[in-house]
Amino acid sequence: MKLSRIRKHLHKHPEISGEEKETATFVKEQLQALGIKTIHSGFAENSLLAEINSGKPGNCILYRCELDALPIQETNTFSHASKNKNVSHKCGHDGHMTILLGFAEELKRSDFNGKVLLLFQSSEETGKGAKNILESTFLDKYPIDYVFALHNIPKYPKNSIICKPNTFTASVESLDVNLKGKTSHAGMPQNGVNPANCVASIISYFNELENQNTESNNHLLATPIQIKMGESAYGTSAGEALVSYTFRSFNAAYFSSVKENIEINLKQLVQKTNGLEYQLQWKEAFEANHNTPKIYQAIKKITTKNNLEFIGKKKPFSWGEDFGAFTQHYPGAMFGLGAGEKTPELHNPDYDFPEDIITTGIQVFLSLQKQFEDDN
């Protein structure tokens, strides 16, 4: 299996969340070429699950990667640049898929115990993919003992392993607050219902909620994404508004309580403006990744054994990754794979997955499999 060719093909033909049909077809073809016969689809969007059974007693371990790309126009001009306008692999999911395919190839010629599940997941970027799979109950038929995933991380040394116990990535969720009042002549605003004062109160409230102290159990970032009100019609008093924020915290329980309080307090704020109606829409939820402490310790030892640099994170990453839905459900871990200090940041239009870290990802997955294939 020529991993570089596979990675470049995936990079050249990206598909956004929920539309990864051709990507899934290509991945399935690669799995079949390895002689993997049991490949499931149709249980949640375009996700695939491949089984590799050793035929010997042992644990059932799931490894996961992502299928989807981002709605970003690529600025790179190399030969494997995206062919699809305004869509590109700017988070390295092309590389993550390639690592899992390379891992599958190594497993097929290895001696191991138990069963391995390889999950190629749809819709990570929208926070829907993992949740949809769990809600489908498709995985319930498997006695899954552990779940593992990696994510490449630019600005860290190439081939380094980045990890921490317990919370690894933040709980993240976004909120749209739609306000509907009534337009009126700008010279007679008393005849309408203008949401301006309510918008100001919401912004003030969210500012008060924010706690940027990352050492606090009540750490919370409240980031304004968009604020829109009325139209460019200067004779008209605005009659509607949209306030969009993204919230993130390292404490999943606190984050859940904050959501409840937001809904209660927003209702009270809106009621201060007579005739104003509102609608809340929570979207793109990412549960915090929880790294089981014993698995964190194993990853640390594996890194040293493989002569790789280990970087122990003191604080969680502030970005969200929906693998957290799995680590909240099963013992497991996500670790970072250093993509190089000079590699552009994730989601940047000039980002490209560095292929020289592919073998390291495969190597660590193989070591994890050996470490956790049974509990003896």
Which keywords apply here?
single chain; 30% helix; alpha/beta; 9 helices; 376 residues; 8-stranded mixed sheet; 4-stranded antiparallel sheet
**Would you tell me the overall average pLDDT?**
97
Beta-strand fraction estimate: 25-35%
Quickly count the helices: 9
DSSP strand count? 16
Order of helices and strands: HHEEEHEHEEEEEHEEEHEEHEHEH
Strand order of the largest sheet: 1-2-4-3-5-16-6-15
Rough outline: elongated
Helix content: 25-40%
The major beta sheet can be summarized as: 8 strands, mixed
Give the class from helix and strand content and strand pairing.
alpha/beta
Radius of gyration: 23 Å
Low-confidence spans: none
Measured between the Cα atoms of the first and last residue, the distance is: 33 Å
Description:
- By secondary structure, the chain is α/β, with parallel strands linked by helices.
- The chain is 30% helix and 26% strand.
- Strand 3 (60-66), helix 3 (93-108) and strand 4 (115-121) form a beta-alpha-beta unit.
How are the SSEs ordered, and which strands pair?
Elements: H1 3-12, H2 21-33, E1 39-41, E2 48-53, E3 60-66, H3 93-108, E4 115-121, H4 129-136, E5 144-153, E6 161-163, E7 166-169, E8 171-180, E9 184-185, H5 196-209, E10 221-229, E11 236-237, E12 240-249, H6 252-271, E13 277-286, E14 289-291, H7 293-305, E15 310-312, H8 324-327, E16 332-338, H9 358-372
Helix pairs in contact: 1-3, 3-9, 7-9
